[in-house]
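Z., the sequence and structure:
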Amino acid sequence: MPIRFAPKPESRPGLVAYLTVGDPDLPTTRDIALAAIDAGADVIELGVPFSDPLADGPVIQRASERALKRGTTLSDVLAVAAELHSARPQAGLVIFSYFNPILRFGLERFCAAAEEAGVDGVLVTDLIVEEAGEYLTHLERHHLSPIFLAAPTSPDERLEHIAASSRGFVYAISRTGITGTQQALAEDAEKLVSRLRRYTHLPIAVGFGISNAEHFVAVCEFADAAVIGSALVRIIEDSTPQAAPGSIARFIRGLRFTGDLRAPVLQIR
């Protein structure tokens, strides 16, 4: 199903929350995601744990290791997605993965299963748009929105290609390098969003390094949504399974309170 933004001057920015599925365990991931949605997250990115997450910083790497030790699989991620879709059908669901788990699962089988689970979009971190032809065909057949990463170092020609191939929204990386929290946002993020707007009317979400309310407010001055990842995963790492959902909800409510509490930007389906 498509993810649609409806940006308006009076609307609040979108909030996309990333979680590593299976960290600390599958039932807790579900409970954390539900708490995040209820606290104000518009879209949940369900991270598929992978043994060699090259684009991720140490916080998410550790989460992947913990989830894999518990035996978390792509099938488990899809099962969690189905539970979330049933419980909170208004929330957007994006599968966030490296390509290897999807290839092992089977591309066509994955797309069919994702559609059945109620997934809205897929972001494959290590699949470049120039090599995504077959992937895009399968996603379109199963009504899944392809989401691609756009980097500050990408030339304009490549940004145009990324924008033309994306559906739902474009994910703008705030800086080059790996995921992780940072003290200050790079100026590259605003410049990248401005460049992308030349080539697309899709909403643009900014991620990588957004870790506090100050970052959230700053990003949403020029982008349509902010993606929070490592900051949430660290809270989960530092919490007990029983306390994690409440801790995540308080953090997200804090972002929303500091930001703008007006009508939501994200309209799913």
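The first strand starts at residue 3 and ends at 5. The CA atoms of residues 123 and 147 lie 5 Å apart.

Let me know what you think.
H.
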